[in-house]
Amino acid sequence: EHLKEYNAATTAEAWAAYRARYVDLPTHDDYVAAVGGRLKINSIPPPVY
Fold first, then answer.
1. Which of 28, 33, 35, 37 has the least C-beta neighbours within 10 A?
2. What is the pLDDT of residues 1-49, one digit of tens each?
3. Cα distance between residue 14 and residue 11, in whole Å
4. Model pTM greater than 0.85?
């Protein structure tokens, strides 16, 4: 979800909204919660280089 919002943040207003929702948070735990929790993060396959 948040990656789709990141890709869609093509205006200054949209970028500001994205930053407020996902980046400018008080703690790392707040970020983890905002993006769906640890299980959601851990379900993302690691990149293959």
1. 28
2. 888 999 999 999 999 999 999 999 999 999 999 999 999 999 999 999 9
3. 5
4. no
